[in-house]
Amino acid sequence: WERAQAAGGHPGLVIGGWTHLHWRGGIDAVQLAFFRRHLQGEDPPAKTAPAGLGRALEGGIALEAEGGSGWWNPTTIAAADRPRAGDRPLAWTLCSDGRAAIRPDEGELVPEQGDQAATAPAADRTPGGRVWLVHDPWRPVPARGGHLGPDPGLVLRGELDSRTDVACFSTAPLPGRLTLLGRPRLEITVQADQPGFDLCVALSLLPAASSDVQQLSTGFARILGPHAQEAQRRRVDLQPLAVELDSGDRLRLSIAGAAWPAIAVNPGDGSQPWGAAGPNHRVITLTLLLHGSLLRFEPLLEAGRRHGNLGAN
Questions:
Q1: What letters, b where the CB count within 10 A reaches 16 and e where it falls short, cover 5-20?
Q2: What's the rounded Cα separation, in Å, for the pair 148 and 76?
Q3: Residue 261: is the preceding peptide bond cis (ω within 30°)?
Q4: How far apart are CA 181 and CA 78, in angstroms?
Q5: Average pLDDT over residues 15-25
Q6: Structure confidence at residue 147 (pLDDT)
Q7: What pLDDT is stored for residue 122 in this prediction?
Q8: Nearest to 250 by CA among 108, 89, 91
Q9: Long-range own/partner contacts, residues 278-281 (CB < 8 A, 24 or more apart)
Q10: Ramachandran angles phi, psi of 4, nearest 5°
């Protein structure tokens, strides 16, 4: 879609939270109308496609938001898909006194540089700290939902966050409604005691007046080689996200060293993993250096912003 935009075309774009062939919301009707137009030369009326999706046939955009009011139009997307707090994207930094892997409610996501659009700080704490994670290959953190798991989509992961090999960082309750649209990205300094490790990251919603932990998006990074044992800044890109949050909701970032069986267990010796744990797999200790860490949202549709098409149609 971005390449077509850059070339001066007018492609339609429909984005929703589906798995292979498990479509909902009238996508079959949109595809049928598309084929009738381009294969049979018909010009279907707008009513052929479900409400909110016809614009995709005219070179527009339709996006489905989790927890939102159906399909967003380009004007809604343009309003939500923009940096917050001046020129900076919506962002938080990680904070812990070292127990974020022991207590899932100890680590915090603190608004970067006092960004009150994100959340109000839960406490008067200086962002930073250090957290240790011990990955045991014989009891790896299991995969749950996400873009690679057998049960994709919104899933509950509260018991995973209670494990001592998962570090959790949560925001304070949101002071008001908040729309999150974009590509979550985590930047954090990590050092391992072995020449290979994985970072498996999840972003979840903690609804107000509920004990649920609803996983929204996941990301993964693999580091192999001697530099894995050096304290370097690592980047993990999570799957794009569109969700509307209510006042009192919280966000949680969870970091682990495995997501089995969606991702092969890292042996820790610097070699590429291919499956489950074997006799040569090593215990890996990760040191998360939180100073300067950043969770932020990158724009979802860069090409549309550059070419001025997000506000059209």
A1: beeeeeebbbbbbeee
A2: 29
A3: yes
A4: 10
A5: 70
A6: 77
A7: 45
A8: 108
A9: 281/137, 281/138
A10: -65, -40
Percent of the chain topping pLDDT 70: 76
Return the H-helix or E-strand segment holding 190: strand 178-192
pLDDT tens profile 141-171 = 999 988 777 777 789 999 999 999 999 999 9
- Give the confidence band of 66 by pLDDT, cuts at 50, 70, 90: low
What is the Cβ-side half-sphere exposure of residue 53, based on CA atoms within 13 angstroms? 21
- Tell which phi-psi region holds residue 308, choosing left (phi > 0), alpha (psi between -120 and 50) or beta: left
Dihedral angle sign, alpha carbons of residues 156, 160, 161, 162: positive
Q: What pLDDT, in 10s, does the model give residues 172-196? A: 999 988 888 889 999 999 999 999 9
pLDDT digits (tens, 9 = 90+) for 85-127: 444 558 999 999 999 999 999 999 999 864 444 444 444 555 6
DSSP readout, 58-107?
GT-EEEE-BTSSSEEPHHHHHHHSS--STTSPSEEEEE-SS-TTT-TTTE
For the four alpha carbons of 168, 133, 293 and 107, in that order, the dihedral sign comes to: positive
Give the strand pairing for 61-64 and 13-15. parallel
Residue type, 13: L
